Amino acid sequence: MPGVHVLGASRIKVEKEIGEFSWTVGGRLLRQALEQSQLESVDAIYASSMMSGELEGQMHLAALVAEEAGQSGAEAMDIASVSASGAAAIRAAFLAIKSGEVRTVAVVGLERMSAGDPNPVLRKALHAVREADRTMVLKNATALGLYLKRYGVPHSAFADFAVNAHANGAKNPLALFQKEVSREQVIEARMIADPLRLFDCSPVCDGGACIILSAESYKKGPVLLTGSGCATDRFVLEDRADPLEFLAARMSFARACEGIGRSAADIRFFEVHDAFNIMACLCLEACGFADRGKGYTLAENGTIRPEGSLPIATMGGLKARGHPIGATALYQAAEIFAQLTRAAGANQLRDDRLGPALMQSIGGAGTTLFTHLFEPSQ
User: Fold this and answer.
1) Which CATH number do you get for residue 60?
2) What are 208's strand-pairing partners?
3) Which domain holds residue 220?
4) Where are the alpha helices (DSSP H) in 40-158?
5) 100 class by beta-carbon count within 10 Å (0-12 exposed, 13-18 middle, 19+ buried)
6) Residue-level pLDDT at 2
7) Is 225 among the domain residues?
8) Residue 43 lies in a domain
């Protein structure tokens, strides 16, 4: 099966409000990515958004992005998987190229959460009957509370996840939050849902990003998308064999590594889905970077910092760069592309970290997990 190359990437600054329709942003991003990739057209366009249909009143987004970018005639599909929508689109593109059906795919992630109230839409990522009285915030508060109780650690043990994310975001001109925070600010921040505090959570925001993938036989790029995997778990935390085991994260990571000879020991940096700090912690444990109940220690001891042995959220992550939901995975992929092509500016990792990069994207609270692996092509 053909190798899959990343030819180019584009993204806008994450904002509280971008002030234009998401599809006009998408058309502009696609044109920019085509120019960077030295292509005039692509065979297919896959667009991801969780909320455009309800908040902007616009579905059929991929075809509209194609029109905006002068690409009418291309295959175009909308792909959604709640907060992992962008990753689902990347996986669909990966599989389409691997199958030989298409040579080039533009994957565009867009979200304009400022267009209306996102909360009713966010609730639809939960079980409509079993979790009718919950929100995503409450679900993550439950997970964090269980973790703190089981392992006997204080809430302050998680503070360095936010400190690291904001330190990295402060250097990223495209991040929503470009200001560092101290441990004290994180620990003393206002309560959102006990025990979740403000800096445990990612913000509501707008954004858009795009990557272009190509079959190796058609056009090679500086970065390879080498592995892709997806897995699911039960919706309701209490229904899981262990609510603190991110089973889908572990399984999707194993599937992405299968057949390409990679393991946790090979990963040089990790763009984790830190919508909530507890999610980052559980993903680190599920992928084998820390023992169960010890994921937070990677933040405390500096392992996750840019100078550490496993940098995460290298350009601010969901916490500081922002979490424009349907676009988030495309930001993660574009940031990995920037790192591996030495185009990350003040956020650039040192050379010995520029090897296999891991990206995980979560739909719901661990219900669906997508894992992707990227590497320099030479």
Assistant:
1) 3.40.47.10
2) 110
3) 4-119+202-376
4) 52-55, 61-68, 85-99, 119-123, 136-151
5) exposed
6) 74
7) yes
8) yes
Whether residue 169 contacts residue 321, with contact meaning beta carbons closer than 8 Å, is answered with yes
- Write out pLDDT tens, residues 226-269: 999 999 999 999 999 999 999 999 999 999 999 899 999 999 99
pTM of the prediction? 0.98
Burial 209-231 (b: 16+ CB within 10 A, else e): bbbbbbbbeeeebbbbbbbbbbb
Query: For residue 78, what pLDDT is reported?
Result: 99
Q: How many structural domains comprise the chain?
A: 1
Q: How confident is the model at residue 1 (pLDDT cuts 50, 70, 90)?
A: low
Q: String of b and e for 12-27 (b: at least 16 CB within 10 Å)? A: bbbbeebeebbbebbb
CB burial class (10 A; 0-12, 13-18, 19+) of residue 247?
Answer: middle
Average pLDDT over residues 103-131: 97
CA atoms within 13 A on the CB side of 195: 19
Q: From CA 365, how far away is CA 140, in angstroms rounded? A: 7
Residue 314 has φ and ψ, to the nearest 5°, of -70, -15
| Residue 323: band (very low, low, confident or very high) from pLDDT cuts 50, 70, 90 | very high
DSSP state of 69: T
pLDDT at 378: 78
Pair 316, 172: CB distance under 8 Å: yes
